[in-house]
Amino acid sequence: MKNKHVRILVFLLIVVCVFSFGCRGEEEAPEGQNPQTPDEISDKPQEEVEEVTDEEITSEIQQEEGVIGGKVYESDEYMVGTMVIEKGVSQERINQLAAKYADQLKEKYPDKKINVQAVQDGKNVAEITKE
């Protein structure tokens, strides 16, 4: 008889433990608030940082023959020039363009480090950095 009571007591303790831990689940948000998933949190707009661009040199780059697009902008202590080059433009021409705009940016922004990059067919084909 005593053995039967011990088994029943152990069984009841196990059932209580299972329900107490199993029913905890996720905590519910306070009334009036909906919990956010990580996807919802990352979709919120972050503080917009005002990007400083050099519209004049950007326009010059975009008008160059063989250039599909480009942009000149400030990034920390750098002025960065990017160019997207059409297929078929020679490596020599790409190097000339990169050097031309690296020199032009260094002249206009002597206190900044300069980085000019050219991309052709998804590959970085030229990069010039001036301290």
Q: What is the compact description of this entry?
A:
Residues 48-58 have a biased composition (Acidic residues). This protein is of the alpha+beta class and 131 residues long. It has helices spanning 2-22, 38-42, 55-63, 91-108; strands at 67-75, 78-85, 113-120, 123-130.
Question: Could you explain the architecture of this structure?
Answer:
By secondary structure, the chain is an alpha+beta fold. The chain has a domain at 55-130: Alpha-Beta Plaits. It has four helices and four strands, in the order H-H-H-E-E-H-E-E. The longest helix has 21 residues, at 2-22. The radius of gyration is 31 Å and the shape is rod-shaped. Residues 48-58 have a biased composition (Acidic residues). This is Sporulation lipoprotein YhcN/YlaJ (Spore_YhcN_YlaJ). Residues 26-61 are annotated as: Disordered. It comes from Alkaliphilus serpentinus.
Give the secondary structure arrangement, pairings included.
Layout: H1 2-22, H2 38-42, H3 55-63, E1 67-75, E2 78-85, H4 91-108, E3 113-120, E4 123-130
Parallel strand pairs: 2-3
Antiparallel strand pairs: 1-2, 3-4
Radius of gyration: 31 Å
Which stretches of 5+ consecutive residues score pLDDT under 50?
A: none
> Tell me about the biggest sheet?
4 strands, mixed
* H-E string: HHHEEHEE
Average pLDDT confidence is: 81
Shape: rod-shaped
Pairing-aware structural class of the strands and helices? alpha+beta
What is the CATH class name of the domain at 55-130? Answer: Alpha Beta
CATH-scheme architecture of the domain at 55-130: 2-Layer Sandwich
Question: Could you name the CATH topology of the domain at 55-130?
Answer: Alpha-Beta Plaits
What is the percent of helical residues?
40-55%
